[in-house]
């Protein structure tokens, strides 16, 4: 079986390793192999492996953080299978820190916000992501998996409703890679915001390609803002584990303002801390500071060597002085909707890691659960692909859906779910699906805003300003409507010879539309999505909002896709096949399951 994996973070690398050498596996990654969110992860990986801890306790903490939107079955899978996946990592060479630096002792498990147990395993102090990424890279390099670095995935190829490959750009040349299964492991969307802890590769390319191909996305409005990034250019993350070890937040007057905000003070859920910091900054016009001085210089250096080095680089001596911090976009709970095996609504297309929406995180990710989610669901997706390969028909199985969903266009059409009072529901454009696709003009006309009919190209900086202001930590209907109308007037056509940077910005623009539309439709506050005009959670909204672009916007019919290689002979030979997609037996493949059949409002 030929499998092409997009991305070389933890999710992509683990998928490849779990598939094993019996399959023809290629990883495509747009930068160097290690460049990813994964390699910057600091705090660690949550798993119930310490004496006294239980899977049930980890499940309970995850469900609380998810604010009523986590899928209990997915959370159970995550927490129950986590310990086995930690053992895999150890087998692949990850050396988790032990107590007293004694290799025979138990793990030196840390505590992070909203966890009720010390269960965060870390490696190299605060260099967990680096240690994990490089252990996996070494294991992949020792395997038969091929890796195509500096290769940009532009679009999915969908044939007869099934994913059959990818169009990629390598050295400026467009190629088509065919595959029996395509695995998106392309990470998140941090670059949609001006302040983000994410590296430059996080431009949502995989999610945008899936949207164009007609896949169902879910929970896109839920973006987690980390409360404590260093308030300097680059928004370097100061892990929650620092607060877990005793650091406190102070306002300009030196007061611990979180004490009055939440019973857990600095260890309250991330959204609570991020909003409190943003409000405090708005109120005083001054930055807030993180005071880690009580931890002591030696312990800070031992436990947080990476952050210590970054603080020094920016001229701070954090062992002796508080450092300025501010919220920054950090993690996307939304993504391509999957079932518990990583299958998406497009047969043959899998999604794992941050690009996916498995239902685990709900409205808010519990700290250190994302590396775990990548490990657990990459493993399951690999098992599903192996089982498809072993099936007599050879055809990909259909997904079993993400439970408890309502499509965005249904909210737009019907106003709001039964029971929710909403004066603003008429603010949604009637043709919301067109808004997500390419038909900007149609939407602008129906939205009734004359200025929005003017289509022009935005810069990345303009997109940043709009998203930070209107779809950031604090949101409200007025700002989101303004954002929607502005976005409706922006377009970024992608010609066959468009640069990678332009393609990335176009992908971000497409996802911005989806995020703003869903955020406008969700007339409540839940988890990371805070609406100042609807400050409470509303029970009728306790479901995932799904978005799906009209099928005319698929890669096949879109000008934006690079011209596929005319024949395998005329392109740089690629390890994965560049020949036209082989005709696969499709007799047994029914149309993708309709998510609207699964609605339970
Ligand atoms: C600073 C920081 C600290 C964090 N700390 C923690 C933590 O302590 N614990 C925790 O659980 N989580 C943490 N996270 C979150 C966690 O790191 C990520 O959610 C996780 O690593 C995602 O893994 P992934 O494999 O899905 O995506 P990534 O690791 O982001 O990998 C995505 C890959 O896809 C590639 N790619 C993207 N687009 C394309 C394209 N068009 N073509 C080809 N390739 C493409 C990228 O180059 C990259 O290789 C942290 C994140 C950051 C940024």
TrEMBL record:
Listed pathway(s): Cofactor biosynthesis; NAD(+) biosynthesis; iminoaspartate from L-aspartate (oxidase route): step 1/1
Domain Fumarate reductase/succinate dehydrogenase flavoprotein-like C-terminal: 460-537
Needed cofactors: FAD
Leader sequence residues: none
The protein's role, per its UniProt record: Catalyzes the oxidation of L-aspartate to iminoaspartate, the first step in the de novo biosynthesis of NAD(+).
InterPro entries (UniProt xref): FAD-dep_OxRdtase_2_FAD-bd, FAD/NAD-bd_sf, Fum_R/Succ_DH_flav-like_C_sf, Fum_Rdtase/Succ_DH_flav-like_C, NadB, Succ_DH/fumarate_Rdtase_cat_sf
Organism: Herbiconiux ginsengi
Family matches, as PANTHER family: L-ASPARTATE OXIDASE (PTHR42716), L-ASPARTATE OXIDASE, CHLOROPLASTIC (PTHR42716:SF2)
Gene Ontology molecular function terms on file: L-aspartate oxidase activity; steroid dehydrogenase activity, acting on the CH-CH group of donors
GO BP term, pick one: 'de novo' NAD+ biosynthetic process from L-aspartate
EC number: 1.4.3.16
Listed name of the protein: L-aspartate oxidase
Enzyme class: oxidoreductase
Domain of life: Bacteria
Gene Ontology annotations for the cellular component aspect, listed alphabetically: cytoplasm
Stretches assigned to the FAD-dependent oxidoreductase 2 FAD-binding domain: 3-371
Localization: Cytoplasm
Catalytic activity field: L-aspartate + O2 = iminosuccinate + H2O2
């Amino acid at each position: 079986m030929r499998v092409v994996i997009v991305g070389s973070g933890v999710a992509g690398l683990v998928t490849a390793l779990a598939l094993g050498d019996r399959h023809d596996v290629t990883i495509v990654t747009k930068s160097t192999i290690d460049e990813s969110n994964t390699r910057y992860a600091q705090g660690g990986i949550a798993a119930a492996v310490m004496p006294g801890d239980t899977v049930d306790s980890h499940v309970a903490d995850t469900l609380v953080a998810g604010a009523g939107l986590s899928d209990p079955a997915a959370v159970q899978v995550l927490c129950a299978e986590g310990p086995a996946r930690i053992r895999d990592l150890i087998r692949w060479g990850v050396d988790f820190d032990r107590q007293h630096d004694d290799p025979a002792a138990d793990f030196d498990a840390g505590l992070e916000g909203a966890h009720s147990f010390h269960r965060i395993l870390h490696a190299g102090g605060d260099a967990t992501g680096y240690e994990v990424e490089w252990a996996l890279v070494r294991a992949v390099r020792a395997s038969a998996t091929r890796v195509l670095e500096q290769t940009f995935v532009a679009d999915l190829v969908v044939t007869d409703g099934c994913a059959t490959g990818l169009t990629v750009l390598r050295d400026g040349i467009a190629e088509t890679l065919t595959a029996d299964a395509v695995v998106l492991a392309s990470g998140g969307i941090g670059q949609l915001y001006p302040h983000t802890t994410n590296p430059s590769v996080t431009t949502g390319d995989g999610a945008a390609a899936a949207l164009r191909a007609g896949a169902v996305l879910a929970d896109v409005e839920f973006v987690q803002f980390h409360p404590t990034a260093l308030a300097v250019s680059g928004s370097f993350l100061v892990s929650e584990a620092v607060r877990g070890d005793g650091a406190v937040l102070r306002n300009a007057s030196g007061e611990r303002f979180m004490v009055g905000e939440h019973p857990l003070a600095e260890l309250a859920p991330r959204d609570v801390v991020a909003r409190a910091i943003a409000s405090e900054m708005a109120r005083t016009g001054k930055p807030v500071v993180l005071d880690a001085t009580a931890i002591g210089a030696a312990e800070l250096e031992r436990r947080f060597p990476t952050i210590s080095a970054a603080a020094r680089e920016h001229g701070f001596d954090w062992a002796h002085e508080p450092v300025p911090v501010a919220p920054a976009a950090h993690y996307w709970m939304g993504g391509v909707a999957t079932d518990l095996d990583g299958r998406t609504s497009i047969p043959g297309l899998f999604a794992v890691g941050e690009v996916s929406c498995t239902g685990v995180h709900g409205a808010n990710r519990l700290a250190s659960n994302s590396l775990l989610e990548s490990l657990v669901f990459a493993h399951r997706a690999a098992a599903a692909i192996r089982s498809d390969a072993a099936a007599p028909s050879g055809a990909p199985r259909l997904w079993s859906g993400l439970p408890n969903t309502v499509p965005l266009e249904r909210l737009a059409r019907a106003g709001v779910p039964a029971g929710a009072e909403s004066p603003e529901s008429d603010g949604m454009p009637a043709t919301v699906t067109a808004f997500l696709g390419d038909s900007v003009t149609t939407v602008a006309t129906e939205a009734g805003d004359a200025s929005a009919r003017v289509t022009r190209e935005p810069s990345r900086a303009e997109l940043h300003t709009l998203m930070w202001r209107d779809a950031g930590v604090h949101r409200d209907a007025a700002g989101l409507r303004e954002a929607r109308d502005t976005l409706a007037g922006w377009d970024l056509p992608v010609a066959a010879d468009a640069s990678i940077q332009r393609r990335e910005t176009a992908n971000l623009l497409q996802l911005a539309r989806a995020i703003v539309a869903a955020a406008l439709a969700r007339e409540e506050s839940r988890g990371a999505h805070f609406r100042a005009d609807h400050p409470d959670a509303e029970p009728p909204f306790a479901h995932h909002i799904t978005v799906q672009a009209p099928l005319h916007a698929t890669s096949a019919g879109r000008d934006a896709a690079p011209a596929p290689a005319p024949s395998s002979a005329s392109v740089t030979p690629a390890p994965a096949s560049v020949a036209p997609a082989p005709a696969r037996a499709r007799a047994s493949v029914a149309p993708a399951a309709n998510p609207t059949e699964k609605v339970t409002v």
